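quick one before i forget lol
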Amino acid sequence: MADNAKYFAGLDIGGTTVKTVLVDEMGDVAGEMVEVRSHVKDGYEATFGQLESALDQLTGNIGLTRDAVKGIGMDVPAPSCDGVIWGRANLAENWVGTNVRDLLSERLGGVPVYMTNDGNAAALGEYAVRKKHHGGLLLVAPGTGLGGGLVLPGGRAYEGTNGLALEVGHISVPHREEDGELPECSCGLKGCLEAWVSLVALRRRVGIELAKPENASHPLNDGSPIEEKAFRLRDFAEQGDDLAVKIFRQQGQILGYGIADLVRVFDPGLVVIGGGLAETDFRDQYLDWVMEGFKERAWPMYLSSPINPDRATTRFEWARGGDWPAALGVAYSAREMFR
C-alpha cells in the first residue's frame, strides 16, 4: 500500500447509528464499513467524538492512520445550507444555526468536508453504485416520511440555492379522502404526496379501513397498536391479503402520479425507488402500481421517445445500495471534490 495513497470518507449521520465508509482514489471501497452509535441528541460535539472513533476504525482496518483521509463527505438528517443546520428535526438544539461542516473540518486538522442532507446523499449513493450510468437520477424513498434527491448528469446533487431543493414528499396531489377532505401532512399542510405515501400515511389508511364494517373480522383488528398494524401490513400484502393489497395499490398509484409531475419538471431519465419496500416480496407488483399512476399523469413523451417508440425515456428501478447508499454517496462526492 503506497504511503501517499489518498482516501475519502463518507459519514452518514442518522438518529440511531452513524454509517461510515472509506473509498480510495479509484472509487473502490477500502476495508470494512464501520457503524457506530449516533449521539445526535446529545449535541454535535458528542457526535464529532463518534465520527473520530469511526474514522480511526476505518483507517485502522487497512493499517493506516486518520492522516490518510484527504477529504470527507457527511450527510445530516436535517435541512442545511453551506454547512449550517437550518432545522432541528431529530437533532439536539445546539445543531441549529451551527456550521458543523467547518467545525468538523477544524477539529480534524483542516481536512475538507462536504455536507448535504440525507436524501441527497442517498441519491448520490444510488448514482455511485451504477457505474455505467451517466445521466440524471431521481430518488424517491418512502419511509417514515417521503424523502428524495436528484443527481444531475455527471454525478452532482441538485441542492438548490439554500440546500432546500427536492422535498419530493411535499408536492401537492389532487387525491382526497373518502369524505372529500385533503389529508393532513406532518409538515402542517394538506394534500402533500407524503400524506399518502409514507409510514405515517399507512397508519392512517389502516385505521380508516379497519374501522369499516366489512373489515371488522380482519385479523389486524386484534386490539394491537396502530403502529404494529401498519408494520404487519407488508406481511399480509406478501400473502395476497385483499385489504393489504388495496392499501398498497392506492399508495403505489398515487406515488406514480406524483413522480410524473417530478419527471415533467426534471426529466431525470432514471427514477429509483428506495425505502423498505425495495426488500418486499411484492415489490414487482408495487412497481406495476407505481407505473399505473405514472402513466395516468405523464405525457407520452416521458414514457417513450416519439422518434423511437422502443426507447424508454423514463426508466424505473429499485434501489441497489442497501443500508449504505448515503455513506457511499457522500464518500464518492468527497473523492470527486477533494482528490
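fyi The chain has a mean pLDDT of 94.
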